[in-house]
UniProtKB/TrEMBL annotation, chain A:
Keyword Nucleus: yes
GO biological process: ubiquitin-dependent protein catabolic process
Native species: Ascodesmis nigricans
Protein's name in the database: Elongin-C
Keywords from the named record: Nucleus
TrEMBL record, chain B:
PANTHER family tied to this protein: CULLIN
GO biological process, one term: ubiquitin-dependent protein catabolic process
Origin species: Ascodesmis nigricans
Protein name, entry field: Cullin-domain-containing protein
GO molecular function ontology, one term from the record: ubiquitin protein ligase binding
The keyword Aminoacyl-tRNA synthetase appears for this protein: no
Domain Cullin family profile: 434-666
Family according to the record: Belongs to the cullin family.
InterPro entries in the cross-refs: Cullin, Cullin-like_AB, Cullin_CS, Cullin_homology, Cullin_homology_sf, Cullin_N, Cullin_neddylation_domain, Cullin_repeat-like_dom_sf
Species classification: Eukaryota, Fungi, Dikarya, Ascomycota, Pezizomycotina
Amino acid sequence: MSAEAENDQESVLLVSNDGFQFLVKKSAACKSPTIRSMLDKRSNFAEARENRIHFENMTAPVLEKVCQYFYYFDKYKGMKDVPEPDFISPELALELLFVADFLDC
Amino acid sequence: MNRGRGRIRPPRRGLVTDHVDFDDTWGILSQSLKQIYSKDASALSFEALYRNAYKLVLKKFGERLYAEVKMLVEEHLKGVASVRVRPLVPSVMVTGNTALGNTAAIERRLGGTRFLEGLQGVWQDHQLCMGMITDVLMYLNRIYCLDRGLPTTYAVGMDLFREQILRHKTYNIGRALNTVILSQIKMERDGDIIDHGPIRSCVHMLESLYETLEEREDEKVYLTSFEGEFIDASKEFYLKEGQRLLQECDAATYLRKTETRLAQERDRCTKSISTLTLHKIEKVVDEFLIEKNIRAVMEMDSGIRFMLDNDKIDDLKLMYMLILRVDPDAKIMKEMVSARIVEQGKDVNSNLQNAPAEAASTAPGVPSTSAAAAAAKDEKAASSATAMAIRWVNEILMLKDKYDKIWESAFHKDKSMQTTITRAFTKFINELSVAPEYISLFIDDNLRQGIKGIDETDVDVILDKAVTLFRYLSDKDIFERHYKTHLSRRLLMNRSLSHDAERQMIGKLKMEVGVQFTSKLEGMFKDMDSSNELTTEYRQGPGADNKIDFSIHVLTTTYWPTKVVGQEDKTCTYPTEIEALRESFSAYYLKRHNGRKLIFKPNMGTADLKATFSGKKHEINVSTYGMVILLAFNSLPQGSSLSFSELQTITSIPTDDLRRNLQSLYIPAKTRLLLKTPKSKGIDPADRFCINDSFSSKYLRFKVGIIAVNKAETEKEKKNTDEEVERDRGIQIEACVVRVMKSRKKLNHQELMMEVVNQLKSRFTPDIASVKKRIEMLIEREYLERVEGDRETYKYLA
């Protein structure tokens, strides 16, 4: 899967600190400026080269929510009267806030 | 969502609560940043770097991190300056030694290019690395810098670049950069081909850097350290260039080179240096190549005068365009064009004044004591005056055409330029005192013969040209006077080719200056029309004397110029048949128009006589006086003669007229109906005249030309005219003053003057002295008085 992702320029592989992998549409993931910078081909960091980002500070449940948010945002981008996101559980709320700050989104 | 049930989980350990050691973390970070500088980031994990910075900021180490990064970048740049840039700085630049040969110049250029390219490389690397570092430290920038209002690490990096590289304390890199760029530009200006790329990117670098961290637009390093020097160098260059061009080139080349220089500088601003400088460098060229030298260029032999004379439209256009750059009014151009027009106009005028001298010297030497000779000379002068008038008008029109063309194609039809040209024409035309007469003569000539066989639109063109010239006249009243004279002659002597054209002309004049100007002229036409009707009606009416074919012009005295019609009543004793006719018509006319006075003017009419000479019948057209003279011989036995004084008694024609009419009957061979003894040109009272029985002519009909009532004015007439004009103007000035004062009641001297001059402008330009004189006269006659206590103000007395 990782090899596939490496060649797939449309997607990026996001990995949690406990080893879970999420293959996400790159355009959606780039909602986060942090991720966008990581994937910048000009700087050519390891992430950009491998097309794979390992998040040392996120567990799988958190990263999953992050991915859900990327898709949610991507889907309703630029639209009006969108439904409220229903995937945020209160237990994770505070943790997600930290992550949001980290990812700047 | 089950809000109530879910418990908010505290953030996981590792984010907040972990202990972070700054030195350890910074050690990792700084190592990685150095790796970024060595252009090998592929092994680095962005996430790790970012996370480390994130942690530091979170743990309130932002300030330290910020300072450490700054130091790191500074250290790095110091290394770059000494290792990468220093060796590239061209030694000649540093020492400033410019006295070098040709090979050195090439080397210098190559060295310069190498330096620029090297610097460009350093700059690009720095930009890239700073970009990456800033990305990695985004959290620092986003949280710490924003909170404290500090510039981002990127801005700090740029600031350090200026400080450590361009402004390096010992390497003079910034200086060298300026010198290299300027010397490359100098080479390009001198005609060498240079590589724009490196210059462009170095300039771009200067444009991206600022003097301070505030990054104010007007403090770009480009503006603060490069542009000024560039402008100064350019000034120096163009000062010399201007002097060189002045010495080496003719005017047209100078203009073209200036145009090229402007284009080059514009090009340079887009291709190698910044468009920010466009306006400023254009100003330098404008100042040193145009403003400073343009007068000298215009005054060259090949300058504006040459261009105008030879219709160098393109050169003029270019000159005008360039001058507009430095002076939107193009004052100097107007000045010079105007001066040249006046000069050319004066040439035309003075050619004219030289011409009569020639004419007089070529005239046959006749004894000047005799009256006939004097008269002949006068006539000659008059007809040559017509020729001169036409030549003058044509030359002026040619000049006008020429400048119209130049105005149209070189001066973009600029309105104020047109005014200038018009003023110049007005100036020299009015300097020629006979101008009004000449213009009238020109029209006269065209209406009498010039427009024969020309179709209507072309006639219109000719008349329009005349009107154009008329517009330039300031003494329109004098023109009116002449025009009236000429028109009346055309009408009375039936010399006009087309009444339509006549009316057209009057229509045009009316459009130019209004009804008041043409009312008398129109009155003359009315008289002619009503006279025709009157003649027909009389001849059809009862009691008409139809033995003699007869037509009459009844003229209203005020419409017609006294000069033509004659002031004094000229009488003569008519032969009985004619006298009867005269009485019959007078009776008829006075019955129709009671209370009018009818005066006959025998000096104005003509008569057709039937006569037989050498067995051949002829119809001879003579003046009324001529007819009276010839009929006097009718009652005499064949072969007898009459003396001058006898003729005078019989006809009672005034001496001058009698003399002139007799001359036309015995001097020209073609119409020699009388013989005089003794045979000489002059006339003594005792000289005798008899019918020339041996006269013959191949024409059945012919005309005895009265020694023409001259076309142009002779000296004597001119003096009369001048006096009349003066008198007329005086009356008009008085009328105008009264008109103004009547409506304003009280007026200050200056205002009154202005008002009067303004109102009379369309007819003539009154001179101040005569207006003053007229005001004095009006005060004397108690139309006006000076206001007590204020001598400058007048009051109208009802």
